[in-house]
Amino acid sequence: MLTISQLAAYAGVTVRAVRHYHQIGLLPEPERDQSGYRTYNSAAVVRLIRIHTLADAGVPLARVQQLLDAGPEEFAAGVEEIDKQLRAEVRRLQGNRKRIARLAAGEHLALPDSVVGYLDRLRGLGVEEWYIELERDAWIMVAAQMPHLVDAVIDMKHAALEDPDMVKLYSLLRGGLDWQPDDPRIVELADIMERLMIRAVEAGEVGADVFDDQFVALMDATMAESAPGAKQLLAILEERGWKGWTRIEQVPADRLTTPPDH
Questions:
Q1: What is the distance between the alpha carbons of residues 141 and 173, in angstroms, rounded to a whole number?
Q2: Residue from 148, 154, 85 nearest 117 by CA
Q3: 117, 135 contact by CB (below 8 A)
Q4: DSSP character string of 88-122
Q5: Per-residue pLDDT at 22 exceeds 90
Q6: What percent of the residues of the chain are helix, what percent strand, and what percent coil, each to the nearest 5?
Q7: Among 57, 118, 178, 209, which one is least packed by beta carbons within 10 Å?
Q8: What is the pTM assigned to this prediction?
Q9: Domains in the chain and their CATH numbers?
């Protein structure tokens, strides 16, 4: 007869594990000797080894009892089902590992690869991180609103970077928009943006109603608050007949605001 310590050693488990198996009913409680200590026979050793083998293979303890008491066919079917569940769990964990690895880059959080590639291209143009972060946050919201369209929009953004005016626009942004309202660079930036808007109108790319009004207002407010010169830039553009940032619209002459002082 074996003590609990000897039983545990034979099966390659801890005494604590043996007690746990007793507690959940996997291992029947044995008889006790005159001193009140548990004593085990060879049948207990075999059962404990089987329990440990199944548990070590990844079988949930809640299923171990069923398999221990099953006949050959039921046992094979049960093992096959558990294997299927384990393979699904492995795929899930592998997917999580890939996502964790991508998150190490920071910008992959909530952003598809196409957007990250576009932001990297902006960095290659020398665009400063303050503006990269502004665009990144905007793209996070865009990706959440229309994930099925993001890649197509990014393709258009890449195409737009082939336009010298767009490259010039980003080169001006290298200095930030913390310019004074009378800084001539704001007017230069407005000139470039107006030319881009005119070409967008001619190409039929202005006026697309992709986002709802609330989302457009949020994006425009984010841009306007990003730097002191942003509001002045938007005011100049509106004076010239252009309104908005996320959803650019041509403003009828009778709706133009009073020209700002600049």
A1: 22
A2: 154
A3: no
A4: HHHHHHHHHHHHHHHHTTSTTTT--HHHHHHHHHH
A5: yes
A6: 65, 5, 30
A7: 209
A8: 0.52
A9: 4-103 (1.10.1660.10), 113-255 (no CATH)
